[in-house]
Design a protein that fits this description.
The protein is α/β, with parallel strands linked by helices and 496 residues long. The protein is 44% helix and 11% strand. Helix 1 (2-17) crosses helix 12 (297-313) and helix 16 (418-426) packs parallel to helix 17 (442-454).
C-alpha cells in the first residue's frame, strides 16, 4: 500500500508540474495556492490579471510566497501583443518594427529592457519571441508579430531577442514551432495547414528556430498547425515527428517544449481537451499552456486526472511524464538562480522603446506635402482584432496628436461606407487616416480611395504590415501598433 500511495503521489505531482494554467482575477485565488502546494510548478498571467505594474508585483509576490521557484509566464511579445501594457499600449515596438530597422544590437537592447521590466514585476518566463517567417502577407494572426519575410533576417533577430531576454534573467520561449508564418487560418479557430515541401520548411521556416537553439533559448512553443510534409495526420503540438524527431533530434533542442494554448479549436475541437493534452505530452511536449479561455480549477483538475489516468492505462509512458515534469522543474531552477544576478547588471534604458520606434518609421512624401501644424481630424479605420492581440489595447495616433495639436478630434470607422463617414466627420479639416494591414481589407482600401479623392493632402499612417503601395500626401509606415509607434508617427506628422 505504501508503494502504491507513493506512486500515486508522484504521478499527481508530475501531472500538476506539466500544467501551466491561467486564473481569473488580480489577486491569487485560493485554489491556485492549494495546487501550488500539491505540485503545480508554473502559472500564466494574461491581460485580465493586470491592472498596473505595481499590482502585478504584489500578485507575483503572493504566488512566490507559496513556492519561491515558481515559473510565472506571460505572453508579452511587446508591440501589438502586450499583457503588461494591455490597457495603455506597449512601451516597446514589436518584432516587425525591429526587423525593419535590422539592427540586432537594438533588438537585443529592447529585449533586455523588456526583461528588466518583467523581472521587476516578478515574471520570469516570457512566451516570446515569435520566430515565424511572415511568408504569407495575408496571414491573419502573425503579421507584425514577425520580424519579417526573410528567414535570415528573422533568424538573426530571433537570436538577438533570446539573448536580450535571457541576459536579463527571463527565460525566452521561441514560437511557434515549426513555423506559423505561411498560414491563412488562425489556429484559435481551426487547424491551419502548410502545404509546402520539406526543403522549403528546412530553408525557410526552420532557420530562426535553429538560431534560437544556438542562442540558448530555454523554451520553444509548439504550433497547432498541420504540416503534411512532416506529419500528414497530426498538428505539430501532437506530433512526435515534429516535437521529438525534428525539434529534439535534428535541431538538438534540450530545453522545455511548451504547447500553444490547448483550448484553441485547432486541438480542443478535433481531439478534445483532455485527450489532446495526453497526446501532446506523449508526442514530446513538456508543459501544457491552458488558461487563456479556460481558467478555472475544474479544468486544471480534469487535465491532471487525464494525465494520471493515461499513465495508469498505459497510453502515456510514466517515464515520459516524469521527464516532462523534470524539464519544467529544471527551468524553474534556472530562473530562480539567474534572475537576481542578471538584473543587477542590467542598466536601465528607459527611452529605448521610443528610440526603436522612431528608427522603424518609413516616411514617403508625394508632391508638395505641407507640415501639419493645425488641429486635424484623425480617422482610424479599425479592422477586427485577432484573438492574440485582443480588443482591450488602445492603438493609433489620435491621443498623441490631440496632445501635440490641441483641438484635434478623432473617430473610428469600419466596413462599407467608412470613407464617406470619415469625410463627413472631418468637416473640412485635414485628415490623418490610420490603417492597419490595408492590403488585407477591401473596405479599408475603398475608404482611403474616397478620402484621397476628396482630400489629396490626407496623411496616411499604416500601423500593420506595409504591403500596399504608399499613398497620401505623406505616408508613414510604423511597422506595428505599439503605443510608442503611435507616438513616433505623431511626432513625424507634426515635424513634417
Amino acid at each position: 500500500m505504501t508503494v502504491s500511495a507513493t506512486l500515486d503521489d508522484t504521478l499527481t505531482k508530475d501531472a500538476f508540474a506539466v500544467l501551466q494554467p491561467g486564473f481569473d482575477g488580480t489577486t491569487v485565488p485560493d485554489w491556485v495556492r492549494r495546487r501550488v502546494g500539491e505540485g503545480l510548478a508554473s502559472v500564466a498571467l494574461f491581460g485580465r490579471n493586470v491592472v498596473s505594474h505595481g499590482q502585478v508585483r504584489e500578485l507575483t509576490a503572493q504566488l512566490r510566497a507559496e513556492r519561491d521557484d515558481l515559473l510565472i509566464a506571460i505572453d508579452e511579445e511587446s508591440g501589438d501583443v502586450t499583457r503588461l501594457d494591455v490597457r495603455t499600449g506597449s512601451s516597446f515596438p514589436g518584432n516587425h518594427a525591429l526587423g525593419a530597422v535590422d539592427d540586432p544590437d537594438l533588438t537585443r537592447r529592447v529585449a533586455r529592457q523588456l526583461a528588466r521590466r518583467l523581472a521587476e514585476c516578478g515574471v520570469n518566463f516570457d512566451w516570446a519571441p515569435s520566430a515565424d517567417v511572415n511568408a504569407n502577407p495575408d496571414n491573419p494572426v502573425i503579421g507584425v508579430r514577425s520580424f519579417g519575410a526573410d528567414p535570415e533576417l528573422v533568424a538573426r533577430h530571433t537570436a538577438a531577442y533570446v539573448q536580450g531576454l535571457q541576459s536579463g534573467g527571463v527565460a525566452a520561449c521561441t514560437k511557434h514551432f515549426p513555423g506559423h508564418g505561411d498560414t491563412n487560418v488562425d489556429s484559435h479557430h481551426a487547424v491551419p495547414r502548410i502545404d509546402v515541401d520539406e526543403h522549403t520548411l528546412l530553408t525557410r521556416e526552420l532557420p530562426p528556430f535553429r538560431a534560437a537553439v544556438e542562442a540558448g533559448t530555454r523554451a520553444i512553443m509548439s504550433a497547432h498547425i498541420l504540416v503534411p510534409a512532416l506529419d500528414p495526420d497530426r498538428p505539430g503540438t501532437l506530433s512526435r515527428r515534429v516535437l521529438t524527431d525534428l525539434l529534439r533530434g535534428e535541431l538538438g533542442f534540450d530545453g522545455l517544449i511548451v504547447t500553444d494554448a490547448m483550448e484553441m479549436r485547432a486541438v480542443a475541437e478535433a481531439y478534445g481537451l483532455e485527450h489532446g493534452v495526453v497526446l501532446a505530452i506523449a508526442a514530446g511536449a513538456d508543459a501544457i499552456c491552458v488558461g487563456g479561455g479556460l481558467c478555472d480549477e475544474g479544468t486544471v483538475l480534469r487535465l491532471r486526472d487525464a494525465l494520471v489516468a493515461a499513465v495508469r492505462s498505459g497510453e502515456l509512458p510514466e517515464e515520459r511524464l516524469a521527464d516532462a515534469a523534470a524539464r519544467v522543474r529544471e527551468l524553474a531552477r534556472w530562473t530562480a538562480e539567474s534572475g537576481g544576478d542578471a538584473q543587477a547588471g542590467t542598466a536601465p534604458e528607459p527611452e529605448i522603446g521610443l528610440i526603436a520606434a522612431r528608427r522603424a518609421l518609413a516616411v514617403t512624401r508625394t508632391g508638395t506635402a505641407t507640415a501639419v501644424q493645425q488641429p486635424v481630424y484623425v480617422a482610424t479605420f479599425s479592422p477586427t482584432a485577432n484573438i492574440a492581440v485582443g480588443e482591450e489595447t488602445p492603438w493609433g495616433v489620435g491621443a498623441e496628436l490631440e496632445r501635440l495639436l490641441p483641438g484635434t478630434e478623432t473617430g473610428i470607422f469600419t466596413g462599407a461606407g467608412a470613407g464617406e463617414a470619415a469625410l463627413r466627420a472631418s468637416a473640412g479639416r485635414r485628415v490623418v487616416a490610420v490603417v492597419r494591414d490595408e492590403h488585407r481589407h477591401a473596405w479599408m482600401r475603398s475608404a482611403l480611395d474616397v478620402l484621397l479623392a476628396a482630400r489629396p493632402d490626407t496623411v496616411v499612417v499604416e500601423m500593420g504590415v506595409p504591403q500596399s503601395s504608399p499613398r497620401g500626401a505623406v505616408h508613414i509606415a510604423t511597422h506595428g501598433a505599439a503605443r510608442v509607434c503611435g507616438v513616433a508617427a505623431a511626432e513625424a506628422i507634426v515635424t513634417g
